[in-house]
Design a protein that fits this description.
- This protein is of the alpha/beta class and 162 residues long.
- The chain has a single domain, classed as Cobalt-precorrin-4 Transmethylase, domain 1.
- It has six helices and five strands.
- Strand 2, helix 2 and strand 3 (62-65) form a beta-alpha-beta unit.
- Helix 3 packs antiparallel against helix 4 (98-109).
- The protein is globular, with a radius of gyration of 15 Å.
- The relative contact order is 0.27.
- The model has no long low-confidence stretch (mean pLDDT 95).
C-alpha cells in the first residue's frame, strides 16, 4: 500500500547522487512518466531506459513505465513554444505554462483513477517515485500527477532535488 509519493528529475544529478537519493527516500517502485525514455547528454546516460532499468533492478527497485501519464507531443510542443517566447531553455524552466497545466489535466488526468493506479502497483508499492527529467518539480508534469495522488489518496509528497 502506497505510503508516500516522491518525485525526481534527472537534470542536476549525476548517477551516484540520483540513485542515492532514491535509496535515501526508501523508494521501492519507480514510475517513469516520460514519453521518450531517453535523455540527451552523456552526463545523463544513467537516465536512459535500458541503463536506468538495469540499475534500478540491481538496487531492488521495481521499474514501471506509465505512458498514459506522459504528455502528448502536441502539449509538449505548446510548452516548448512558451519556453522559446520567454527565452527559457528546457533545462532552466522553473514552471509550466497555465495552458500546459490545463491541457495536461484535461488530456491525461481527467480519466486518471488514483485508486486504480495504486491497485495496479500492488501492495508491495510503499514509496513510489514519479520520474521525468526536469530538475524543478513545478516545471514538470510529474508534479501534477503527485498533486492529484496526494489529493485523491491523502498521500504525502516529497520532491527530491539535486
Amino acid at each position: 500500500m502506497i505510503e508516500k509519493i516522491v518525485t525526481i528529475g534527472a537534470y542536476g544529478y549525476d548517477a551516484d547522487r540520483f540513485f542515492a537519493a532514491l535509496q535515501g527516500a526508501g523508494v521501492d517502485t519507480f514510475c517513469d512518466v516520460r514519453r521518450r525514455r531517453g535523455v540527451r547528454g552523456s552526463e545523463y546516460a544513467f537516465a536512459n531506459r535500458a541503463r536506468l532499468e538495469a540499475r534500478l533492478a540491481e538496487l531492488g527497485i521495481r521499474y514501471v513505465h506509465r505512458l498514459d501519464l506522459a504528455p502528448d507531443n502536441e502539449l509538449r510542443q505548446a510548452q516548448y513554444a512558451v519556453d522559446a517566447a520567454e527565452h527559457v531553455g528546457k533545462r532552466a524552466r522553473q514552471s509550466l505554462s497555465p495552458a500546459f497545466v490545463d491541457g495536461y489535466r484535461r488530456a491525461q488526468l481527467a480519466a486518471f483513477d488514483s485508486r486504480h493506479f495504486a491497485e495496479e502497483l500492488g501492495l508491495d508499492a510503499c514509496v513510489v517515485a514519479l520520474f521525468c527529467v526536469e530538475a524543478e518539480p513545478a516545471a514538470c508534469h510529474r508534479s501534477l500527477v503527485a498533486e492529484r495522488l496526494a489529493a485523491d489518496l491523502g498521500l504525502p509528497v516529497e520532491h527530491l532535488l539535486p
